[in-house]
Amino acid sequence: MIKDLYDLGDAPELGAVPKRMYASVIRRERYGEPVDAFRTEVVDVPPVRPGQVLVKVMAAGVNYNNVWAALGSPLDVITARQKQGATEDFHIGGSDLSGVVWAVGENVRGVKPGDEVVVLAARWDESAEDVRLGAEPVTSASQRVWGYEENYGSFAQFAVVDDYMCHPKPARLSWAASACYMATAATAYRQLFGWQPHTVRPGDPVLVWGGAGGLGSIAIQLVRHVGGIPVAVVSSQERGEFCVGLGAEGWIDRRDFDHWGRLPDASDEAAMAKWLSGARAFGRRFWEVLGERRAPRIVLEHSGADTIPTSLYLCDNAGMVVICGGTTGYNGDVDLRFLWMRQKRLQGSHVASLREAREVTRLIDQGAVDPCLSRTFGFEEIGLAHQLLHENRHPAGNMAVLVNASE
Ligand SMILES: NC(=O)c1ccc[n+]([C@@H]2O[C@H](COP(=O)([O-])OP(=O)(O)OC[C@H]3O[C@@H](n4cnc5c(N)ncnc54)[C@H](OP(=O)(O)O)[C@@H]3O)[C@@H](O)[C@H]2O)c1
């Protein structure tokens, strides 16, 4: 006889699914500051459809996307889903988890009840026309981010994912450390190794914005692992030292410069000259940290509007700026002269393929890359964790939340 609802940390026997569960829920009327947007509620456990897996969530990762979900901007995720036919008027976020496969739908392959897994949040329709015509699934028009664009993410006792999204949990890591890394690590891995011929080679200088952040802390280690030379950008000495500890050659304090933001109009020569002198000073600092006068062959971007003009200016001839986010805004100003005359590449990159997720997980499992778990929060602190991220007051690395696990 199973109960309708179990406390966090408690559950019926493997395979038995209760009707209801605790979840940290965002509702439209609470859109705003993350600390107030999340609230624990009891909701129905979602159905498990063919090809899907119900995971008992042990721990969840904290990512920037649920800062956006909490704010209701730039995407009102609940309304967007309802326009696609969803009936729920709430959002359960969380795009990273570690947990136990609890039940499986029809035709599930590759995982079975009892398996300990982590999840890559990229979900797509395997029968979509573009996939059938040969597109890499993560680039499919059907691709959505689970736990952000799609509901029933990891901030709940149970989550529903597609079978191919599951990867073996790194055995050496705790539930929290396993839950904290995938979204940032797999994304950084694709940025650095997914865009031939611009993959990191031994000796390549690489500029990493937000070196102490989720993406940055993993990127530094990945660049070093293959013999590249990572240089971090940060906003405090403490964060800079953290990056050096991970393998950065050194760090640049972005507070020493003030040329950030959108480019002036190209015809305003005085304003352009002022901007250029700021960008050049930043470039000289890069050389100082690197110890030689070479430009970064690859720039790992996610900060967006404030930094992209500098990224494109600084990037080496025939190098690549690879961008996966726009934390400071979405207007990416490009002085096209630098782009074409110096034959640079500006590449968008989003989440990762299954292969990339598996490869970065192997590196983490082998101990070659640390997931950089910074702080572990309790279930009632999900809003707080996102608020710290929103205000850039979070500790260096990746954060996690305990769901059914106690440590
Ligand atoms: N497309 C994808 O698949 C994907 C996946 C993961 C993340 N993302 C996006 O990537 C972004 C970063 O994610 P994350 O998890 O690494 O976040 P994070 O842990 O907050 O790290 C971002 C870092 O950016 C730096 N930063 C903040 N404001 C800045 C500014 N004005 N100029 C330069 N740097 C600034 C901060 O470092 P300092 O203050 O120390 O400089 C911060 O540590 C987010 O927008 C997220 O949505 C996208």
UniProtKB/TrEMBL annotation:
Domain spans labelled Enoyl reductase (ER): 33-401
CDD domains, sorted: crotonyl_coA_red (cd08246)
Enzyme Commission code(s) on record: 1.3.1.85
Domain of life: Bacteria
Any one GO molecular function term: oxidoreductase activity
Protein name: Crotonyl-CoA carboxylase/reductase
Transmembrane segments: none
Subcellular location: Cytoplasm
PROSITE patterns assigned: QOR_ZETA_CRYSTAL
Known partners and oligomeric status: Homotetramer.
Pfam assignment, any one: ADH_zinc_N
Leading EC class: oxidoreductase
Keywords in alphabetical order: Acetylation, Cytoplasm, NADP, Oxidoreductase, RNA-binding
